[in-house]
Each structure stands twice: as C-alpha cells, then as structure tokens.
C-alpha cells in the first residue's frame, strides 16, 4: 500500500486581485517535496459553483448534480486530507469558501483539514481560521492543531515583488504536513475499515 495520500489544496478566495493563489501554490510545492502526498490544487474560481443552490445540487438529495457541482464533488471525494488557504474578510472567511463548504457533506467527512490564513492585520487571518474550526466539525471534519498565518502579508515583498516569508515558514509547513499526514492516514484507515455512521 502506498503511503501517499491525496491532498486537496483549496484556494478559498475568488476576489479580483486575491493573494490566495500564492500561499496555496507554495504549500502545494512543499507538500509535493514532503513525499507523503499527491497534490490537487483546487481553485474555487475555476470551480465556478452556481450561486443559486438548487434542489438537485443539495447534498442530501439523490438527484443528478449540475456539472460544476459534480466535478468539484469528485475532487473533494478523492482527497484524503485538505489544506484550506483563506484570507480574512470582515473578521471571517470569504463567501466563496463558505459557499463551497455548504454544497457538500460526505465529501468532507472523516478527513483532516489544515488551515493557512493571511490578512492585513497582526492576527494574520486567524479569525477566519477560528470560524473554519467552528464550521468543519458540523461536517464531521477534523481540524488539525497546527496552522500557518501570514499577518500583514502586504509588508513582506522584496524589490522583485517576491514574498519574503515563505522560506522561513517551511519548517512550520513541514510540521503542519507531518501532522496532517498522520491524521490523514489514521482516518483513511478508519474509513476503509468501517463506514462512518450516518449522523441522522
């Protein structure tokens, strides 16, 4: 059995001028070098989920989902673990991220998720992380202890426009990924051994 897990790295912002792709691509690269993951970089802008949640697209119906919802469902289902990258907007997560979370239930269940946040304040998006820690348990998703935050990220670019904090954050990223891999393996083994009971 391969020790590699399928890791979904989710770009949580869809705003014009968003910074989220930069830390998402960084952590995806670190995860690929880690050796424990096959990485799928999931951009919610490309996912293009419908703004109107129709009855067919609701997770608790057996109807055929619309193409964008079904396509993202397949990628989330395939993942054994997640890293969610999110800015902090108005003390919380972007609407696009909450929208994507709310479309699905079983795809998130019994899997671990790590969070990388950023923001214009000294907290580095930790209000967004705390809201995700409240939301994900409702989906039966395990949020791991370690996270990474980039406070006042806009202050840390060199003269070439390169972000200067990624290299020094690599040890923290390795610790995060080690923990995520442990939980991902444990929960994958548990899901394979015994189907998770319905919460209803």
UniProtKB/TrEMBL annotation:
Coiled coil: none annotated. It comes from the Bacteria. GO terms for molecular function: FMN binding; oxidoreductase activity. Pfam families: FMN_red. One of its GO terms (cellular component) is cytosol. Residues 7-153 form the NADPH-dependent FMN reductase-like domain. InterPro entries: Flavoprotein-like_sf, FMN_Rdtase-like_dom, NAD(P)H-dep_reductase. This is NAD(P)H-dependent FMN reductase. It comes from Glycomyces lechevalierae. The lineage of its organism: Bacteria, Bacillati, Actinomycetota, Actinomycetes, Glycomycetales.
């Amino acid at each position: 059995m391969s020790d590699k897990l399928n890791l979904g790295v989710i770009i949580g912002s869809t705003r014009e001028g968003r910074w989220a792709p930069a830390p998402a691509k960084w952590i995806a690269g670190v995860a690929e070098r880690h050796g424990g993951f096959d990485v799928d970089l999931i951009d919610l802008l490309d996912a293009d989920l419908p703004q109107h949640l129709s009855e067919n697209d609701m997770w608790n119906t057996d109807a055929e989902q619309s193409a964008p919802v079904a396509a993202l469902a397949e990628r989330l289902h395939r993942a054994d673990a997640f890293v969610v990258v999110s800015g902090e907007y108005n003390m919380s997560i972007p609407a696009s991220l909450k929208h994507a979370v709310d479309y699905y239930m079983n795809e998130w269940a019994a899997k671990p998720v790590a969070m990388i946040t950023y923001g214009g304040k000294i907290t580095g998006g930790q209000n967004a992380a705390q809201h995700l820690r409240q939301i994900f348990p409702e989906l039966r998703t395990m949020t791991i202890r370690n996270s990474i935050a980039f406070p006042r990220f806009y202050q840390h670019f060199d003269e070439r426009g390169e972000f200067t904090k990624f290299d020094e954050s690599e040890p923290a990223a390795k610790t995060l990924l080690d923990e995520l891999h442990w939980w991902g393996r444990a929960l994958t083994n548990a899901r394979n051994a015994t189907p998770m009971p319905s919460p209803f």
